[in-house]
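Hello again,

I reread your note about wanting to compare the complex against the isolated chains. To keep things tidy I'm splitting this into two emails, and this first one only covers the full assembly. Below are the input lines as submitted, including protein chains and any nucleic acid or small-molecule components. They are followed by the predicted structure of everything together. The single-chain runs will come separately.
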Amino acid sequence: MICCQTPDTDVLGAVGDAALRRIAGFVSLLRQHGFSTGLAETQDAARIAANMADSKPARIKSAFRSLFCSRASDWKAFDALFELHWLGTGLKRAIKVGGSAASSPQTSLGPQGGPPSSRAGGTELADAIESEGEGNDADGTEGTAEGASQTEISGSVDFRKIADPDALAKAHAAAERLARVMRARLTRRERQRRRGRAIDLRATIQRNAAHGGVPLDLAYRKRKDKPLRIILLLDASGSMQLYTAVFTRFIHGMLENFQEAEAFVFHTRLAHVSSAMRERNATRALERLSLMSQGVGGGTRIGECLGDFNQWHAKRVLNSRSCVIILSDGYDTGDPERLGEELRRLRRRCRRIVWLNPMMGWEGYAPEARAMKAALPHIDVLASAHSLDSLAALEPLLAKI
Amino acid sequence: MTLQPQHISEKLGQAGYVADRDLAMALSLMQMLGRPLLLEGEAGVGKTEVAKALAAVHGTELIRLQCYEGLGRADALYEWNYQRQLLAIQARAASGLTLAEDDVFTERYLLERPLLKAIRQEKPPVLLVDEVDRADEEFEAFLLELLSDFQVSVPELGTIRSRSIPFVVLTSNGTREISDALRRRCLYHYVEFPDADREAAIISARLPQISTTLALQIARAMEKIRKEDLRKVPGIAETLDWSAALLGFRISDLRSDPETVYATMKCLLKTQEDSSRISPEVVARILGKVA
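Full-complex prediction:
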């Protein structure tokens, strides 16, 4: 990195203490809003401020936006945040006035990231440095641990029986973590299995040119890596209300971590919600989702929605390594025959259809509803998804694809 | 010496690229901070063109690496020309000479691929890593390493350090989500469809013989068409095609010949669904608004 190789402390000194503190404050505001920015970005922001002290705020805004944003959703949120932080008190003034206090107090910003200065000037930056390692997501990833064991909620409790809002929030976070952990293991298994059989002659000759052509080190033909693709169809009708929130979190975790995953929400019509769910901040993703999936009238027309999916989306999103997961209780106000027909068409296109019906976990429930009966012949797995344990049990089903 | 944004804008204009101010700023920052630039945006907004224009601005070479699934070091970085090595070994053996290992692992037998080529230039080139989201995650990690160190280690030759730091432009189409680490390393610019005035300027820059009024009419029509509910929104390349087609049919005013205008819309609408959606009536409605 350029800025690390040439520690131009002159430049940083020229920006001054006050401006640096304002920049650090801005960075932490951005982090609170889901931006992933590190210490290097803060340093570069200081360089920009030093180089452009005479420029108009609009120019500096545009420079900071290029520096701090890293995805389309950041790009859209940036202007409002910038104005919130800077234009209240004047950006130009902050940078210029700060310049006069150039008694080089900012050694803590040096490239080695040395001990944070205990002086008042350094504290805010030091905060920024300390919080840097923690990532920006409140419910960050616990890469290795079993997601569910992190909370006190027993995995077997039905989601609809959790009344305490705190416990529910924990269950939601756990569902999201579960989805992330699942991904790490699934991809590893895939890699283990992918060892090819046949020898790749061309690659073997090439690899052994160093041995004068004696094939000591064999290269094997590898199967083309086609990642597992997961398509989630969530029923957001009234009867599913108690489960929708937790499933959305689960889907959010899935989408963020599987390279190829798509999500749809349906009730009376189908909505493609992947873009909303790719929002990193879970709460904001849910807000966008609820806007996108607001229904018209009541009832659930699963058959018609699947028909829409088959007609408009299937060609694009399905391949031979796709698993379609339908999350629904199967209460359909539409025609069951239509549902059966659409499922049959869908079945031909994907590897596996998993139907998760939270009511399967209820005592004495049997899939008697007409829609469920029509669907049964076409689905590969019918499982319950009413608790964290049952969500975790999904993993082996997916691993076999 | 860092080029100022205004200066870059001007030079981009001379190279035939009409840039907005934010983009010029981002390009100027690339030079100031030595960071790569990540461009995202819908297909057809001219992301790849940015790199070409940037090469023209700096008067330097453009080295392009097109990413695809399964792209690896051998295609992106370097490969030994092993056929030639084997031939050399055999030729020497036939003439009774001995050959040390060092003789076949020299520059002569090294096939330079885009990334290695980019860091070995005397004058910093523009390195375009196109559609980085199509490459695998492993490649992305490797790219990240290269972009922070700008050095490559070839086991048989040792470490090759960059002679100059290239201007790196990455583009992404959102086939898959690229990693946070790579995003953070880069400056970011979201390329949007240009507004009507800028698009008219682009048309005029690329097709100098077109009249200003027609260019503006086309640009306004495009703005309306993009607002229709289309599956494949036409990009700037399509606009230019359409403009060239209209020019070829000697149309000087869009409203004068709606039938030809409708027929030439084949340049814009690339799926059956879209062309059935933009019916002659819709075209008439759009043309009514462009005056």
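For quick reference: The CA atoms of residues 186 and 347 of chain A lie 22 Å apart.

B.
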